[in-house]
Amino acid sequence: MDIKENEFLLENVSITDTAENGHGVGRVENMVVFVEGAVPGDVADVHVYRKKKKYKEARLVRLVEASPDRVEPVCSHFGTCGGCRWQHLNYEKQLFYKQRQVEEVLKRIGKIPNPVISPILGSASQYFYRNRLDFSCSDKRWLTKEELHAGIPMKENVIGFHVPGRFDKILDIKNCFLQDELSNTIRNEIKRFSIEHGFQFFDVMEQDGFLRDIIFRSTSTGEWMLIVVFKDDLEEERNLLMNHLAKSFPQITSFLYIINPKRNSTIFDLPVNVFQGRDHIYEEMEGLKFKISAKSFYQTNSKQAFELYKIARTFAALTGNELVYDLYTGTGTIANFVARNSKKVIGIDNVPDAIEDAKENSRFNGIGNTEFFSGDLNKTLTKDFIQLHGKPDVIITDPPRSGMHPEAVMKMAEYSPSRIVYISCNPSTQARDIELLSEKYSVDSIQPVDMFPQTTHVENVILLNCRDENSI
Ligand SMILES: C[S@@+](CC[C@H](N)C(=O)[O-])C[C@H]1O[C@@H](n2cnc3c(N)ncnc32)[C@H](O)[C@@H]1O
């Protein structure tokens, strides 16, 4: 083992807790040690590689005593890939620590002394639950320390995930347990075929190479979208690859490509080209059909998203007479989901394509009481907008991980909706935002939902009721 200057070994460290990022937490001489790879209940020898004033950061090197809550990870990439950090912790305990994470941030950041939290809703599927996976292509393979020492060359064409914290390093993925097996089969075939035909894989440092990114999206109805992102517009090579895939995988109902010659890999500002099939796929929920385009957001665990939306609808307690605002509406899934129970629903999102999908979702589901607007929420939710469209009785808000802008939070309160249902994939920012509402709103129900088994992420739904009796 490599131990550099200022690094050292600690023996027999008892792991008693987990940190937000999933690392184990122990205490040595009254100082906290965060240990990668450890779970509560472990006793371990650890390699301290960073020492700060108040804590140490370490890696597990030897298990002295394994925690009874440990399980064998199913994936050969576990430990290097940052995707499923809790595969070595049994599912029951994953849920326990997610529930506790919600409680902890609501107390510490949300300043709620004793939050009453319903038991977290676990996911029926603990693997193969994702409907979207994004892979990157690279002409260099990420090597573990052992592989480096063994002299394995880095120069190798790979398709996989970014190593945590490294934009330029790609871990070669052979088998991922997060999406239906078809995504493994297609990805491995893209790699095999591309190597066979001498296609150049992307070199992020040189910004060169034909094959750049691969995005899979699938639905519970069995539809598949495959988006291949090329750096160069090489028609002959592109057709060769895409014709081969189209012939080999008739399951692909929406086969798309994007040319991205930019330095960054975001596709939001680039045109999407249809190679074969439709430019979208359909998801279904409670008899409603939802259109998903290449750029639009859709919750990545479809089955659990249905459970999440049902909770949000129950919290909203709609009687059919309410004007509902669905903030950060995406493709309008929640708006359309609650429309039958509302007088009218207004959805806002900053992705114009998603808003077009939201409108179409209402149209072909025969829903006539929704209206959708594209724009940055902070700029759209103005007094004029409210005057024109009416004061909301209920607001459902589902912001990205960064949470809401403080001005947007205060604007919600200014219009005094009777209820705010706040859905969040990041309980810390949710806690920060609801604290701003605490004078005017009481927190009355809290329901965590596990959308992402094997990861440390947790979704949380909070019902806030207006304290002002004049609000309807
Ligand atoms: C967590 S998703 C919620 C989507 C939707 N509620 C659903 O369940 O499918 C967050 C959404 O916020 C949108 N968004 C992010 N920042 C925004 C902003 N400043 N203004 C409006 N929408 C924004 C994104 O486009 C994305 O669709």
The gross shape turns out to be globular
* Uncertain stretches of 5 or more adjacent residues: none
**Nearest-integer average pLDDT:** 94
Strand order of the largest sheet: 8-7-6-9-10-11-12
Number of DSSP E strands: 21
Helix proportion = 25-40%
Distance between the amino and carboxyl termini: 66 Å
Strand content: 25-35%
Round the Cα radius of gyration to an integer and report it.
24 Å
Main sheet record: 7 strands, mixed
**How many H/I helices?**
11
Bound molecules: S-adenosylmethionine
Structural class estimated from helices and strands: alpha/beta
How does this structure look, described?
The chain is 25% helix and 31% strand. It has 11 helices and 21 strands. The model has no long low-confidence stretch (mean pLDDT 94). The N and C termini lie far apart (66 Å). It is an alpha/beta fold and 472 residues long. It is globular, with a radius of gyration of 24 Å. Strand 7 and strand 8 (170-172) form a beta hairpin.
How are the SSEs placed, and which strands pair?
Elements (H helix, E strand, L loop, with lengths): L7 E11 L5 E5 L2 E6 L6 E9 L3 E11 L25 H18 L23 E9 L4 H5 L5 E8 L7 E3 L8 H16 L14 E8 L5 E7 L4 H14 L3 E8 L13 E5 L2 E6 L2 E6 L8 H15 L6 E5 L5 H7 L4 E6 L2 H13 L5 E5 L2 H4 L2 H7 L4 E4 L8 H9 L4 E6 L2 H10 L4 E9 L9 E8 L6
Parallel strand pairs: 3-5, 10-11, 15-16, 15-18, 16-17, 18-19
Antiparallel strand pairs: 1-2, 1-4, 2-3, 4-5, 6-7, 6-9, 7-8, 9-10, 11-12, 13-14, 19-21, 20-21
The protein binds S-adenosylmethionine.
